[in-house]
Amino acid sequence: MSRSPKVYLTRRETFSASHRLHSTLLSDSDNIQIFNKCNNPNGHGHNYVLEVTVIGHIDDNTGMVMNISDLKELIQIYVLNILDHKHLDLDVEYFRTKSIVSTTENLCVFIWEQLCSRIQKQYNNHVQLYEIKLYETEKNIVTYRGE
Known about the structure:
With 147 residues, this protein is α+β, with helices and mostly antiparallel strands. It contains 5 helices and 5 strands; from the N terminus they run E-H-E-H-E-H-H-H-E-E. It has one domain (6-144): 6-pyruvoyl tetrahydropterin synthase/QueD (Tetrahydropterin Synthase, Chain A, 2-Layer Sandwich).
C-alpha cells in the first residue's frame, strides 16, 4: 500500500499586540542599551503576520492534509484570542508570570506550545505542526520549528 504525498499546508493570520522589551535579569541601563527604543516603559506595538504550517499526507477520502477550517479555529482559540489587541507583558500569562522577554523569538515558541499538541491530538498524529513564522515587521521575521 503506497502512502499519499506528504504536503505542507500554511494558514496566514494577523494580529496586533503591544509589548516592552525588558529583561528582569538585566539592569535598567543594560536594558536601554540592548533594547533601545523598544525598552520604552509604555511599550510599543506591532501588526504581526503569523504563518502556521502543518505537514501530513493527503487524506485519500478528503483530498486534504487537514481541514483548513480546523486549523483556522485552533489558531483563533489558542493564539489570536490570547494575543490580539493585548499587551503581551501585562495581559498574557506566559510572559507575565514567567518573566519571559516578549521578543518575537519567544512569541514564536509560545505559539508553537499553544498549537503543537492540540493539532497532533485532533488528527491522531497524522498531521504535525511543522513551522511557526512570525513577521514582526516586513523586515523582521522569526521562524521556529520546535527544535
